[in-house]
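QUALITY CONTROL LOG
STEP: pairwise intake check
CHECKER ROLE: data steward
CRITERIA: each record must contain a sequence immediately followed by its structure tokens, with no blank fields

ENTRY 1 OF 2
RESULT FIELD BELOW
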Amino acid sequence: MKTKEINGFPFVEYVRDTYEPHEMTERSETYYHWLNNRRTVRDFSDTPIPKEVIENILKSASTAPSGAHKQPWTFCVVSNPEIKKQIRIAAEEEEKESYSKRMSEEWLHDLEHLGTDWHKPFLEIAPYLIVVFKKAYNINGEDKTNNYYVNESVGLASGFLLTAIHNAGLVALTHTPSPMGFLTKILNRPENERPFLLIPVGYPAEETYVPKLERKPLERISKFYE
């Protein structure tokens, strides 16, 4: 592997496969159809998953780009039944408050076709909960150091995470009870970390249904300047 020094830091030569235009077209279309099968699922099986699978998923998520390569994320993986129960109780308390008082009529109307409510049994049924925390800053002893583009970085890592889950043949749900401060307390996270996403991971239940949805077509999500 070729190396060189830039600004006093080591760099390595970047080498990877490239493809002819026709193969690029085929690969990109195949990938789209594969990824288009990914769906948010709320009905989970409690079938166990090898821990190594979760570890590989997390390592895949950590390949995401981040501001100044700070990697400002922590993935907390919960399989302990008692902790999952605590998380469910706290999440349902916040969600019940949201559905009954915090959400506007328009918001509730927009959720009707998804069939959601404040009950969250999947938080105990799914074999794993991955709680994504974002690091607002780093703590090194008594010193604090900055992180950059934290929301963007953690959002990208979460996208990689969901794709890795799909690739493993598992399903997930991006759960965002609001506020999520209870996760910091239950999981005893440090002051520099903030909860970002709560993601149950597992196999789908034997009989699982998801809303019949259509994704926006290309012309509604893009604009080409040629």
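ENTRY 2 OF 2
RESULT FIELD BELOW
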Amino acid sequence: MAVKKFIPYAPVGSDWSDKERLKRVSDHFEFMNRRRSLREFSSEPVDRSIIEYIIRTAGTAPSGAHKQPWSFCAVSDPAIKSEIRKQAEEEEYENYHGRMSDEWLHDLEVFDTDWHKPFLEEAPWLIVIFKKAYDIDKEGKKKNYYVNESVGIAVGMLISAIHHAGLVALTHTPSPMNFLSDILSRPENERPFLLMPVGYPAQNAQVPDLKRKSVEEIAQFYG
């Protein structure tokens, strides 16, 4: 039987007024609303300690039964990035030449993108997120719970931390992504979840002129 151990919770903002809370949350929204996904990266290096803290922030995410079923592989080695780009472009070529439906290709037109992915080498860092389908210890396999949900939350916190650091990123999914497991020699219990180039924006970088849905379109309030 598991030993139950609890410690006092240290609340944050318990002395804040509603006015201060509103100011903080509205300021945070305005800051996060400036976040954009980029495909044009500067080659300017980013200090490893910054990436480490970004990953540590993602690791504070909640997870099913506190299993923390994630691994973050941070890649700056040019040779590894080159190999990732090579194999990602092979998969993307197949996607753009038969795997994707006409509707999918039409929806991608606004991004003016194709199977070429130079950002996989241009960005100073690639963070490859793996989900742990199960854990392994000396006794064998151990079940993880709500793996996709847990890793998805952690990725959201990762993206927020990247933006907070004044960096940019792109959520990239060159499906299928099994080649990432081979290149990075990941264990059998890990599955590639997301490939994310991270760095500074290229000079004069541009993004599509897109609008986010309003709160009226994404939320319903009851009561």
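INTAKE CHECK: passed for both entries
DESCRIPTIVE NOTE, ENTRY 2: The mean pLDDT is 96.
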